[in-house]
Amino acid sequence: MKRxxxxxxxxxxxxxxxxxxxxSAVALVPASLLxxxxxxxxxxxxxxxxxxxxEILTYLGAKVSREGTLMTIDSSNVxxxxxxxxxxxxxxxxxxxxSALLGxxxxxxxxxxxxxxxxxxxxxxxxxxxxxxxxxxxEEGNKYTIDAEELIGAEVYLDMPSVGAxxxxxxxxxxxxxxxxIENAAKEPEIVNVATFLNNMGAKITGAGTSTIxxxxxxxxxxxxxxxxxxxxxxxTYMIAGALVGENLRIENVILEHVDSLIxxxxxxxxxxxxxxxxxxxxxxxxxxxxxxxxxxxxxFPTDLQQPxxxxxxxxxxxxxxxxxxxxNRFKNVPYLNEMGANIEIDGKKIHVKGPTLLQGAEVxxxxxxxxxxxxxxxLKAEGETxxxxxxxxxxxxxxxxxxxxxxxxxxxxxxx
Length: 417
Ligand code: EPU
Known about the structure:
Blueprint: E1 2-7, E2 12-17, H1 22-31, E3 38-42, H2 48-60, E4 63-67, E5 70-74, H3 85-88, H4 94-105, E6 107-111, H5 124-132, E7 136-140, E8 143-147, E9 155-157, H6 163-173, E10 179-183, H7 189-201, E11 204-206, E12 212-216, E13 224-227, H8 232-245, E14 246-252, H9 260-269, E15 273-275, E16 279-282, E17 288-289, E18 292-294, H10 306-313, E19 316-323, H11 334-339, E20 343-347, E21 350-355, E22 363-365, H12 369-381, E23 385-389, H13 392-395, H14 401-407, E24 411-416
Parallel strand pairs: 2-14, 3-13, 9-10, 17-19, 18-19, 22-23
Antiparallel strand pairs: 1-23, 1-24, 3-5, 4-5, 6-8, 7-8, 10-12, 11-12, 14-16, 15-16, 19-21, 20-21
Helix pairs in contact: 1-2, 1-4, 1-7, 4-6, 5-6, 8-10, 8-12, 10-12
The structure holds uridine-diphosphate-2(N-acetylglucosaminyl) butyric acid.
Residues 23, 26, 92-93, 116, 119-126, 160, 162-165, 186, 302-304, 326-327, 369-370, 397 line the site of uridine-diphosphate-2(N-acetylglucosaminyl) butyric acid.
């Protein structure tokens, strides 16, 4: 097990550079399987979710090489063979491999994907997309065997704007015959990144970033180069760190528009933020005002930032109310924050955070990726020493978190026990 030890209370000053977005990269890498030629993806973050995908692609016969942040993938010799359960469940994004293989080879055998345990996370909308395009899905326990004689473009209405189902339907439709229209599509920037990548290969996708996406199938996808967009959740996490303990903490390589909902919440609390073209500078705020937050799909407030934000809500005066609308089990961080001195009550889909409260160091558990980030932030603010156990979850999604925080003045160490 890996754990993080933090001596709290040290101000953060200097510059943190944001890495490529996890949730884009984990879709771009599987999407490369659709190409008949070599593709290059730059700004790939060095996180364990990418290592897991690398393992799946290599297992399938792809040649993958990495040089710094550049990943080169040659999938011309890939065969669509059964992907064992141990590999399928390593990460949520393994179902992007399922869709890319189905889109290209019209046959795939795989198991239910993994990912953080934050709620049920069904894949019914993805399967609905497959079926609409003519695939036959056989489910045996956790195993899916999916075949299509032919994939034919269709209209797919998603019951909710799911990021995964939107990307999966795009991946299956790019080489299908005719036109596919996805209605009620998710609008997250990561989807635009994936569509741009596929268009660079020769796909015909329009409307990504809006709720209606049109895809006209093509028979060949070729070589291309693309870059992963900066990670808006990593950006937001370090912005919250700046609001907690920053002294002119500069966060660079940021697309400001992607973190607009957070910038506005921080301003509502009374935190001043200096915005530059691709950076923000942020300092600890005093007498912070309470705010209410509701998670929503993009451009609403992201569910992935609600747990990190909860740490900051403990420092606001009065009662802040945070409502989680996407996942039913994304408050596992709350009991640990309370152990550290917070005053938070869980009330169904909402939490009531009364502040300000002094946070004290404690030994706590990272139950999932963003819960872990929330507790690392609490440790940076708390008096004394905090130990966050099970930080493998955190390392799945935050590149070089120890180095990045150390450079700006945190006293933080990674330990293997
Ligand atoms: N949903 C269904 N059926 C489906 C798909 C989704 O009911 O077929 C429901 C889910 O249960 C959830 C909601 O729709 O309540 C949204 O789920 P979505 O499909 O959008 O989430 P996802 O694609 O599984 C991605 C990110 C998550 C992030 C969400 C929401 C990746 C690999 N994961 O998940 O990231 O929380 O979108 O923005 O892109 C994280 O990074 O910590 C993380 C969990």
